Amino acid sequence: MPLFGKKDSGKKAKSKDLKELNKQVSIEEKYNLHGLLGTGAFSEVRLAESKESPGDHFAVKIIDKKALKGKEESLENEIRVLRRFSANHFDGNSPNGTRLTHPNIVQLLETYEDKAKVYLVMELVTGGELFDRIVEKGSYTEKDASHLIRQILEAVDYMHEQGVVHRDLKPENLLYYSPDDESKIMISDFGLSKTEDSGIMATACGTPGYVAPEVLAQKPYGKAVDVWSIGVISYILLCGYPPFYDENDANLFAQILKGEFEFDSPYWDEISESAKQFIKNLMCVAVEKRYTCKQALGHPWISGNEASSKNIHGTVSEQLKKNFAKSRWKQAYYAATVIRQMQRMALSSNSSSTADGRTSVNISSDNGNGQVSVTVEPASTGPIEPASAAQSTSDTTSLMDSVQSVSPRNDIKIHQRISPNSSFSSGQAN
Prior knowledge:
Layout: H1 16-19, H2 27-30, E1 31-39, E2 43-50, E3 57-64, H3 65-68, H4 72-84, E4 108-113, E5 117-123, H5 130-136, H6 142-161, E6 164-165, E7 174-176, E8 185-187, E9 194-195, E10 205-206, H7 213-216, H8 224-239, H9 249-258, H10 273-282, H11 293-297, H12 300-303, H13 313-323, H14 335-344, E11 359-364, E12 371-376, E13 423-426
Antiparallel strand pairs: 1-2, 2-3, 3-5, 4-5, 6-9, 7-8, 10-13, 11-12, 11-13
Helix pairs in contact: 5-13, 6-8, 8-10, 8-13
């Protein structure tokens, strides 16, 4: 019986989205699988070329079923969410029966399954990660940052309208579509995303530096968590370092819970007051006062002319290089790798609780699918302290000795036993 051939809990029939995994045709019949683009703990991504339309290229995420055992629900959820934004998904419930697509959301195009693996055929994105591209630029202004954030807000607002909360927005999940200077930004990695119709969200998940206070407080939450994350990203885009940092993990979480951040001099001296006010409205601890995506899109720093044209590239790129070194995990959509593969092939034509009462926490190190299980103290005793996802999957014994990274900045040191790029998800149901 296929991995996804079981019925959904509480439903009489399988979801149409998941049914489509049970295709008899093999992926090799439709695609030529080429070079490796990236790897994770339980999956790899390969460049693929259509046999029906030579010259059309895609990224295929290949997930090992054996490694995924016990975590099938996570992948099912990711596929379900991605299908909402697929060009092949038809929404019969919408007024005009429209297809739910957005130009800034990476699309899942097809799914295949055999006895050993699940294959996700994705839109190929070749432009590289957000921060890498900013560092490479010769000029970078507030207006550039405002344009980037507007694209992210529009895409996330669209997601929210469709009842989807991303829950893990961070720079690593923001990719340029192509190497072109005017390339659009794409949102990827829906491994922790959730649909509102799937029930109340209360799981502590996300990436520590970008997670909203209500998530750390283990309160029920919703779309506003994505807005907080966009606020954090906006902050970094204007100075090159994160708003929350501390040598002690517990203090880091305490800062986030209180919403304690500063616009440090001299890094923020040349940044407009409009930009600072915009960020404050997104990173507001009181959820009821926090902007929605629509409100953020209406702010004059986004919709008006209040973003400065002053070149801030020197300061921002220097801080980005110091504070955001590449993860040890290979990046699935790394642009140079894609280009090299194409050139090589000459493609011009052709949680539950444990016995001791601790809470199980999963650390996602594989774009939302691969998870390393560790144990942490329950919420009542303090903030969650997951281990670094940069560890070996077998090395989960010591939280205190996990990855420590020190910022080369003289005045700000970031010692984090939690990798700032590692997603985490508590072992609860939602």
